[in-house]
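User: Could you check the structure of this?
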Amino acid sequence: MRVSVFGLGYVGCVSAACLASMGHEVIGVDVNQVKVDLVNDGKAPVVEERIGELIAEVVRTGALRATGDVREAIRNSEVSLVCVGTPSEPNGSLCTTYLERVTEQIGAALAEGAGQEGRQTVVFRSTMLPGTCLNLLVPILEKNVGGTAGVDFGVAVNPEFLREGTSVRDFFDPPKTVIGELDPASGDAVMALYDGVPGEVFRVPVPTAEAIKYADNAFHGLKIGFANELGSVCQALGVDSHQVMDVFLADRKLNISPAYLRPGFAFGGSCLPKDLRSLVHAAQRADVSVPILAHVLPSNSDHLQRAVDLVERTGKRRIGMFGLSFKPGTDDLRESPLVELAERLFGKGYDLRIYDANVNLSRLIGANREYIENRLPHLAQLLAESVGEVLEHAEVCLVGTRDPAVLSALPQGDGPVLVDLIRLPDAEARRAEPGYMGLAW
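Assistant: Sure, the predicted structure tokens are below.
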């Protein structure tokens, strides 16, 4: 394919050189003439493993050249990759100045007929927040082109997952390829660029592609921060942190796995809250600052409050709850987030009915019974005998269980407002219903 790459920094330079080495005809574009001249001389404008030899080779064969002329680049390409920087503003917000400028230039070039015969596809590879492409960049393109995105020209978002220092290697062996497509033809154009590149390909809506990059980077930062905080606590307690993490990393069932990484309701139970408190207290006694660990429980509490806020937003008073124990298949109520939610709603004067097939007050004994008597002493009058009893009572239903008897009884369309705490199996279909509110969309 004939490809133009806008921005010859790390991402653009590596993308241009690697695509050229795959047989595409590539034109790099940059406002910095020094970068343009370096590329045309077969030299890399960035320091990166293997990039120097790669650029020298693809420039020598004629597969890659560079220019400062946007119109020339558009005229000689069918796909345009936008790889300009999106730095932080002083207040932490995303700077989209460079994105907007190059989008205007591409749109103006297309409006003047610079594009070849056939439809040009503009592919944004720069990191940008969800909504940036559809709400900011697409309108700029449509205004300048005088046409409609997805009809007169293609638009896609194709985030990169290149680590500086190993970016060439990562390009040819990526962890995944993500294509946020405005329409199938736009996605097909991006697919063609990476023909032969290994790894799983995800074709998703544009905002999803924008968000994935942030999910990755936020989690990477969180992992590093977690490891460093835990290492500092271990050191203060005289424990070999690397030995601890070697065992931690060996657990591929719960630790290094998809476990616990699905958005849903708050966590609880007899272990997680207690052990987090103990660990943070031990760190404080040892004068070790652990801001990540110290804010896990407050974050969990804030997430629980979001469910209360959703109920308050309905303006209704008769509330039904499905689920009470801290997780399915148990009657353990200790530090259950659903008990906490019921307590907050009851304390605010809501008329509450609760159904949980696993919870029977007459069977509760020991610490479990003591906990519920202290936290929700009125539970006996709140518990319902059946799903139907709750549905009959409720104007708003909070669904915190995947009990098949509950799921099969939930009404479609008309009925009580459903506040989904777990992402119901049919959540996608229910999102169109006016009475559906999801906590874990």
